[in-house]
Design goal:
The protein has about 300 residues and is α+β, with helices and mostly antiparallel strands. The protein folds into 2 domains: about 1-120, PAS domain (Beta-Lactamase, 2-Layer Sandwich); about 130-290, Reverse transcriptase/Diguanylate cyclase domain (Alpha-Beta Plaits, 2-Layer Sandwich), CATH 3.30.70.270. About 45% of the residues lie in helices and about 25% in strands. The chain contains 10 helices and 11 strands. The protein has a 5-stranded antiparallel sheet, sandwiched between helices. A 4-stranded antiparallel sheet has the order 7-8-6-9, sandwiched between helices. A two-stranded antiparallel ribbon has the order 10-11. Strand 10 (about 285-290) and strand 11 form a beta hairpin. Helix 7 packs antiparallel against helix 8 (about 180-195). The longest helix is centred in the last third of the chain and has 21 residues, at about 220-240. The chain is elongated, with a radius of gyration of 30 Å.
Length: about 300
């Protein structure tokens, strides 16, 4: 018996997760030393205190209600653990009702697992899978998925959709002659000017090194061209104020579709891409010894 007690005590004291027992009102009866690691509270500070001491808001109360009235157990319910300094720790909590031989509820036991590291890693992976690292706009995969969904929505509500295919002029020349930091700054400057002009509902994604796709849900070409004129105005003002040895500019091409004249994704992008290259040929920046210059 003594050996069993010692084994239980060793497991209890070294369990990496927080083990707790409460009465039906949530008053803590037992809690293991892991509480100190995650919250700064010592076990003796928690005994006879309500377990809501450890949580933000009233979520824990709802867990108990669910545990008591529905399932008699809750597993891996996400909750915010609050430490002694008020810092939030994302956690998973489990709660189980314990009954005596007569079926009467005697206590509630459970585990609390800190998942802050997992949350941070998940968020990092989400950011990597969703956004372009340099510019912070959506990456190609997400941009194309948005376009796909917006086309479906357009068909359903019988509205319009326009896109603009954008190519940053002479990015390679800037990289080769002035360095990749200058090239990155060129990209960021144009993205900033686009974002300052676009509507809240518009979607910008980077689909290649110097290529971007701007999606305009529910927007006809006349309005799109008006938005793009604001982008051009911002770029022009930036060039006037800049002391760079090169001009900032972008080529662009528009395409429009609606529920009556339906185009598929590939067709829509092909039209915009073709118009972008036609614009690039018409307005090619003057070069001197392969270096872009102020014009």
């Amino acid at each position: 018996m003594k050996k069993s007690e010692e084994t239980y005590k060793t497991i209890f004291n070294n369990l990496p997760d927080i083990y707790y027992e409460t009465d039906l009102d949530g008053e803590i009866i037992i809690i293991n030393p892991s509480i100190t690691k995650y919250t700064g509270y010592k076990p003796e500070e928690c005994i006879d205190k309500n377990i809501t001491l450890l949580f933000t808001g009233n979520k824990y109360k709802s867990i108990f209600i669910k545990a008591l009235l529905e399932k008699e157990s809750i597993s891996n319910y996400e909750i915010q653990l609050t430490d002694k300094q008020g810092k939030i720790h994302h956690s998973l909590i489990s709660a189980n009702i314990i009954k005596d031989s007569n079926g009467n509820i005697t206590k509630i036991t459970g585990l609390i697992k800190d998942i802050c590291d997992l949350k941070a890693k998940t968020e990092e992976l989400y950011q990597f899978a969703t956004y372009d690292e340099l510019t912070g706009v959506y990456n190609r995969r997400v941009g194309m998925e948005f376009l796909k969904q917006e086309l479906k929505k357009m068909r359903r509500v019988k509205t319009f959709l326009s896109i603009c295919f954008i190519d940053i002029n002479d990015l390679k020349i800037v990289n080769d002659n002035f360095g990749h930091d200058a090239g990155d700054n060129l990209i960021l400057a144009i993205v900033e000017d686009i974002k300052s002009a676009m509507r809240e509902s518009d979607i910008l994604s980077r689909i290649g090194g110097d290529e971007f796709l701007l999606i305009f849900p529910g927007c006809k070409l006349d309005e799109v061209k008006s938005i793009w004129r604001r982008v051009q105005k911002s770029i022009k003002e930036r060039n006037k104020k800049s002391d760079n040895e090169y001009n900032i500019s972008a080529s662009y091409g528009f395409a429009e579709t609606d529920s009556e004249n339906l185009l598929f994704i590939d067709e829509l992008i092909q039209i915009a891409d073709k118009r972008m290259y036609a614009h690039k040929r018409r307005t090619k920046i003057k070069n001197l010894n392969n270096k872009p210059i102020k014009v």
